[in-house]
Design goal:
The structure is a homodimer of 297-residue chains. Chain A is an alpha/beta fold and 297 residues long. Helix content of chain A is 37%, strand content 16%. Chains A and B meet through helix 5, helix 7 and strand 6 of A and helix 5, helix 7 and strand 6 of B.
């Protein structure tokens, strides 16, 4: 008896295609799109993520600047910096790396970013535009998931999508994007009863909770496409830490296609950030100089 | 053999309770909350709705003003009026009755209303706040549905909710409110395959499409609670027009509880508008005079 194994939906080729498309658009602009990343404190994961984003921006022909502020930076100083970036015409995209230290109100900072420069897509205006089905800068991870599915030619319209997790960053906006793409969308969370019954209804199952191996093979309809957004640091029997997703590896014997962790959705998030930066630059340049810009994907 | 019949979830008592609560809050304010309704053109349904809203506001002890503009009003004139209402401290709530004539861009008008005075809850900022789970003025019909369920003591947390229809005014924001209330939420629409299979999963089924009698008894799980948001004008065999919902009357033999049409969700929409007006007034007065205001429901 042979065990079927799911097709691997690798992130890097899809991310490379997304970046190539964005870089191609950037090449037609009169200036190099400029992404500014603001980091507060020295959280090791944040330091690593910010470094990766800035490097990828440079490799892709974009300009990037990182402002690294101390852990004790007052909220007012951060807001002042954001205000100055908002008014600087040489800055096209602003990303404040989350999480912020506990003394800073994240919502206040996100809402202070000019929505037109909000390449993280987390400003309430942009979330509102997303749910209104209007052109918008969409949050990077959800938009990256949609780009990954498109890259691999996986149809979404009319299919049942179940999202496990209702976070502001992933679950909720992803539901809005799938709905705009004509999927029948269900959102589940910690209060959902009999989770397996719900997840088995999915043609496309997305796990975005942050609990290692929450999704087991019995929770997956045979042939479903499974997208694993989780990135969990677990310590193996050998005592070594490694990254693993929200989906148990054995799901590969049930699913028709599955994203790996790492190397699945993660690269898409960074690629989408760069695509959003180019999109923001195009839009800002079209407002000031008449260069065609179009926020519609 | 007896046929069980669903409990009728009548709107008027729930609406009266919501209005009484809002009026009680308004009585503690130093001014009478003032709702301004703007209507453009003479669409008979709009004329009737606006008249009903203004009358209910007056009956409830609120102040209301109606601006009735001609069908040919330029968009710039409408935007000027909105701007003057935004800056008028004596105006606490602004409602522009939809639909607007075809030469006016609804999205531009809705986005021009001060989000703090947007008692219809349709400004992108307020939609964004709704989906961020933060305090907000929520759209009246969706918030009215939640208030109706609360009035009748129907639990929402952990239950499966299926919403038929993904409109900006009802389906989408209602999904956000149910999700914030810990329901497991599915949104269906015209592209959903095998709609009956999905609707039968619902503990609470909401029909908000605008198609008379779309939901038939075979599409409802026995014992489900059914909320009928549809208001459809149909002509009977006697040649007379009457109002009917999206839910077939025979669903009453399957459901445990059902809202009538008319007299179900409709009165809740108007009641929620008044509650939003009081909420907006409290918030604005707390910003200017220190009167306690709290947008959290």
């Amino acid at each position: 008896m042979t065990v079927d194994t799911a097709t691997v939906l690798a992130g890097p080729p899809a991310a490379a295609a997304l970046i190539a498309s964005a870089a191609g658009q950037a090449a037609h602009l009169p200036v190099v799109p400029h992404l500014v990343i603001v980091r507060v404190g020295e959280d090791p994961a944040s330091v690593s993520y910010v470094r990766g984003k800035a490097k990828k921006a440079g490799d892709s022909g974009l300009r990037s600047t990182v402002h690294a502020l101390s852990e004790t930076t007052p909220q007012s100083d951060l807001l002042s910096l954001v205000a100055s970036l908002n008014s600087d015409p040489d800055v096209h995209g602003i990303l404040v790396q989350l999480p912020l230290p506990g003394h800073i109100a994240e919502a206040a900072v996100l809402a202070a970013i000019d929505p037109d420069k909000d390449v993280d897509g987390l400003h309430p205006m942009n979330i509102g535009q997303l749910w209104s089905g209007r052109p918008t800068l969409a949050p990077c991870t959800p938009a990256g998931v949609m780009a990954l599915l498109a890259h691999y030619g996986i149809p979404v319209a009319g299919r049942r999508v179940v999202i496990v997790g209702r976070s502001q960053l992933v679950g909720r906006p992803l539901a809005g994007l799938f709905l705009a793409a004509d999927a029948t969308v269900t959102v589940t969370h910690s209060r959902t009863r009999d989770l397996g019954t719900v997840t088995r209804e999915a043609d496309i199952l997305v796990a975005a909770v942050g609990r290692a191996h929450l999704i087991t093979p019995d929770m997956v309809r045979p042939g479903a496409v499974v997208i694993d957004v989780g990135i969990n640091r677990v310590v193996g029997e050998d005592g070594k830490a490694r990254l693993t997703g929200d989906v148990h590896p054995d799901v590969a014997t049930v699913a028709s296609a599955l994203t790996p962790v790492p190397g699945g959705v993660g690269p898409m998030t960074v690629a989408q950030l760069l695509a959003n930066t180019v999109q923001a630059a195009r839009q800002q340049l079209s407002q000031t100089s008449g260069v065609p810009g179009d926020l519609v994907r």
